[in-house]
Amino acid sequence: MSFRRTQQTRGVDKICFNFRTNGTSAPDRIRDGGLNQVESVTRAAAGRYTVKLRQPYPLQVIDLCAELHEAQGYVTRLRKARIVRDSYDKAAGTFTVEVVGLADTAGATNAAVEDPASGDVICIRGEFLMLSTRVQS
Q1: CA 65 to each of CA 24, 25, 54: distance values in angstroms, whole numbers, following the listed order
Q2: In angstroms, rounded to a whole number, what is the distance separating the alpha carbons of residues 58 and 48?
Q3: pLDDT at 123 over 90
Q4: DSSP string, 52-96
């Protein structure tokens, strides 16, 4: 009779990808260096995008951040991309990114979620705690 022993180890898995916005339509390009980490990015509402990873990470999000790179060489509005707090769904592997804009005028204090300019690129970086199982004979 032989027994099999399983060993579980924890590690960190990193993701890094970007997508190009397309006005009020769905993003038209997702790049992740050919790693196939992202299943889809959909425009959920004005300035809000839902990202679905190919592999959900059910243990823990260590770090998840977003940056906005504007396609135009000049800035007419100050904009920032950010991950919506507590939006990561561990079972589905989805999270929400939003773009927040602030008017570039003196005295402007209120930020609002808004569509980025067409062609802007949103870059996402993240680290997830993962669990791997190895069967030993």
Answers
A1: 23, 23, 18
A2: 23
A3: yes
A4: EESS---SEEEEEEEEEE-SSSS-SEEEEEEEPTT--BTTTTEEE
Predicted TM-score (pTM) of this structure? 0.81
Q: What is the pLDDT of residues 59-101, one digit of tens each?
A: 788 899 999 988 876 666 678 899 999 999 999 999 999 999 8
Pairing between strand 77-83 and 112-113?
unpaired
Per the structure, the count of domains in the chain is: 1
Give a yes or no: residue 112 inside a domain. yes
Q: How confident is the model at residue 111 (pLDDT cuts 50, 70, 90)?
A: confident
Beta carbons within 8 Å of 44's beta carbon, 6+ residues apart: 50, 96
Which CATH number does the domain housing residue 20 bear?
2.60.40
